Amino acid sequence: MAKEASNTNSSVTTKPPPSPSPLRNAKFFQANMRILVTGGAGFIGSHLVDRLMENEKNEVIVVDNYFTGSKDNLKKWIGHPRFELIRHDVTETLLVEVDQIYHLACPASPIFYKYNPVKTIKTNVIGTLNMLGLAKRVGARILLTSTSEVYGDPLMHPQDETYWGNVNPIGVRSCYDEGKRVAETLMYDYHRQHGIEIRIARIFNTYGPRMNIDDGRVVSNFIAQAVRGEPLTVQAPGTQTRSFCYVSDMVDGLIRLMEGDNTGPINIGNPGEFTMLELAETVKELINPDVEIISVENTPDDPRQRKPDITKAKELLGWEPKIKLRDGLPLMEDDFRTRLGVTRKN
Ligand SMILES: NC(=O)c1ccc[n+]([C@@H]2O[C@H](COP(=O)([O-])OP(=O)(O)OC[C@H]3O[C@@H](n4cnc5c(N)ncnc54)[C@H](O)[C@@H]3O)[C@@H](O)[C@H]2O)c1
Ligand SMILES: O=c1ccn([C@@H]2O[C@H](COP(=O)(O)OP(=O)(O)O[C@H]3OC[C@@H](O)[C@H](O)[C@H]3O)[C@@H](O)[C@H]2O)c(=O)[nH]1
Question: Taking 70 as the threshold, does the pLDDT of residue 64 lie above it?
Fold first, then answer.
């Protein structure tokens, strides 16, 4: 069992972690590392699965209820002897024997997480409890994909992990923001009370191929609009900022966090910060200079600024993003053009 040399509150750990399966130490049977990815049919999850499957020592089990994910994202692995796909909702208990759990299951786009807010809370709270219960039973290490939304509409800029956030507890985004905050609390309580090995990633806005075309998040919206020749819808005022991380960088950060000795929470994101108007102008310039940029109404509680301080990720994980927005957008454009069936004009 790896030593728990965590960087934050884990010095208060009271119990040793549960033992993993005896097969780990078996003399004649070299078991593969068996890894569960919840939400593995989604955008980040499917890219993570691709990377994990590259290692021949890994067996990967995906559970997903296909609310926002799709089997299509995993089609190259279906039928592979080291891969299993299970239709399962994490709000129900799950019994599988695994060594690591990447717990991603949760709708991530605001229009989807607000669609059924009670279900979003259940997914974050009951779903995380179930995965922690599983980790406890089988002695697995568990990583939670938390979010920059735990900082709410931040009063500290850029945000580092010591900031406790500015979150509306009763707003339309609370099902997600507060749900993830409780999920983080549960992770730490299982760690302190039961010795579970935990990892918490606070993910900032991530983009890349395989995002749902109608996902509703800003990068996928703008790219789909530019490819279709429709106006780019900047939600007012357009001066709000976000920092966008390309998905391959994100997956690299998640794996480093899982494999390392630090519990987190650790921000994983790209500190390059843009207003939504700047993003629209960049997409227009790179993808379709003929499209209009229009201002549309915003939704309540939209955070006004967001940028990760990634000092901790650099120091503790040796990680920093490599792909700049201007290089990542065209990679995503290719994927969207293929799926939308719209070729480039010469
Ligand atoms: N993409 C981002 O910018 C971002 C930012 C911060 C945090 N995150 C977190 O990363 C994770 C993945 O995000 P994503 O962008 O890939 O989103 P996504 O919506 O593409 O993927 C989420 C996956 O979880 C599945 N799912 C949802 N509820 C489930 C349930 N109850 N049981 C089983 N499966 C369920 C969905 O069907 C989908 O496949 C989420 O936990 C999200 O909160 C993402
Ligand atoms: O068409 C659009 C969509 C969105 N926007 C704006 O773009 C910004 C980003 O919005 P998105 O919906 O992409 O995402 P948000 O930053 O609000 O939430 C995101 O951040 C953290 C993650 O946990 C969430 O999963 C993710 O969706 C917002 O200011 C929004 O008002 C537009 O200007 N136009």
Answer: yes
In a mutational test of the pocket of ligand 2, which residue from 176, 213, 220, 242 has the highest number of ligand atoms less than 8 Å from its CB?
242
User: What CATH architecture is 30-338?
Assistant: 3-Layer(aba) Sandwich (3.40)
Q: Say how many Å lie between the CA of residue 179 and the centre of ligand 1.
A: 13
CB 108 within 8 A of CB 85: no
Reported as a pLDDT band with limits 50, 70 and 90, residue 268 is very high
Q: Is the pLDDT of residue 15 over 80?
A: no
Here the ipTM equals 0.98
Please enumerate in sequence order all residues whose Cβ is within 8 A of that of 301, keeping only pairs 6 or more positions apart, or say none. Answer: 152, 153, 168, 171, 172, 173
What's the pTM?
0.94
Cβ–ligand 1 distance for 39 under 6 Å, the answer: yes
Q: Is 176 a catalytic residue?
A: yes
| Single-letter residue type at 6 | S
List the chain domain ranges: 30-338
